[in-house]
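Teaching assistant here, posting this on the class forum so everyone can see the example we discussed in section. The complex has four components, and the goal was to see what a joint structure prediction looks like when all of them are supplied at once.
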Amino acid sequence: MRLAELSRRSGVATATIKFYLREGLLPAGRRVSSTQAEYDEEHLRRLQLVRALIQVGGISVAAAREVLTAVDDSSVDQVSRMGTAVAALPQPLPGPAADDPGAATADRVAREVQERLGWRVVPENPAHQALVSAISALLRLGYPCDGAALLPYGELAGRLAEHELSLVEEFAAPTTQLEAAVALTVLYEPVLLSLRRLAQAEQATRRLRDGIPPR
Amino acid sequence: MRLAELSRRSGVATATIKFYLREGLLPAGRRVSSTQAEYDEEHLRRLQLVRALIQVGGISVAAAREVLTAVDDSSVDQVSRMGTAVAALPQPLPGPAADDPGAATADRVAREVQERLGWRVVPENPAHQALVSAISALLRLGYPCDGAALLPYGELAGRLAEHELSLVEEFAAPTTQLEAAVALTVLYEPVLLSLRRLAQAEQATRRLRDGIPPR
DNA sequence: ATCATTGGATAGCGTCACTATCCATGATTG
DNA sequence: CAATCATGGATAGTGACGCTATCCAATGAT
């Protein structure tokens, strides 16, 4: 198919597709003449993945490129690719906030909860640093946030991860598994957050209805 | 305290504080002369909340203004304020993606999971629409995502919400409760997502170590 | 009296994710 | 075969966003 058809079937403007091609998010089409190229179903699928990562998952173009490069890199084994890919994923927190005096306490809390869950602590993990930033912000505002308070969150997260890893293993092909890991990691984030919001709304109305006036 | 001291104690540049004042994220100080104003601890606290919402929670300046305006609006009862405040919170998904043909299926899935959880379905809720967008993206990519698959996520979300609402109720003053609800809703998002990432990493290494090679 | 600081207003900056325009080549059609 | 149209590639521009830098008159500090 030509660029125009790829655009039509994906719902993405041709100018945007060209942009993704330039940025290396999408492999070039098979050149069929000096001024035309042919795209296939694989391109369509990749394009949909890119859009989902960027629009739904909210990750940046640069991050998407890193992730997809790692997924595609067939020069290393799958474990490394997986590691590189998820490490390139959006730290949910952009800033390092290294100038934070409360960071030490936050780091202690982060380690405590992971140890209590029996997890290996890897301080270099971007997720670890994001966790520290978030805890630090909570503490700075005076909200209680210690190992005990985070434990239930960690247990729930553990159960989610177990479930998701099992899902990924159901996919046969290695590249498909990698893609699935990335897609599920990123795309289930909004699912989880939305459900949490809905649950909060439900809980709030329920408590009101059952006569626990919010004062 | 003067602007300079507010800046020093919060770690936020004076130019940025002026920007927040202009944007209505921070109430004006008590004018002490035609060219000077006095700020108090409440300003400092509010400034920290604003920074946390924007930097850690990743919400936009405009959204933060809406949320805080609702929290401050003493002309209506607390329940309405709470509703307005959380409704103004960041849809984790920006785009509506109304041009989506698979949206109908996604909407069905979203309703199914909520009904199976015994929740009231409120389609106008931004979180509902965000959920539909996310499900729609997953389905478009061919990943399984039906009511049964989402049920465990919903149950976990329900437990989180219960826990968080209880936390909020521990705060005495109404305004404090509102602030706490907003802060906890927004600031626990990165906590939850980070823990999920860490749990995934832990699960992945664990499965590797226990001899389930990822092919 | 002097001089730095303050708050307020205005305009500018850097990033990001596109998007619009232009162009030469090649495909399509009567 | 000529006229027209579409395509892919390159380049520059756009609009939103979150600040940030500059200027200014009035004031406080010394």
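For the discussion questions: Residues 2-4, 14, 18, 21-22, 29, 31, 33-37 of chain B lie near DNA strand C (CB under 10 Å from a C1'). The first helix of chain B runs from residue 3 to 10. Think about how each of these relates to the inputs above.
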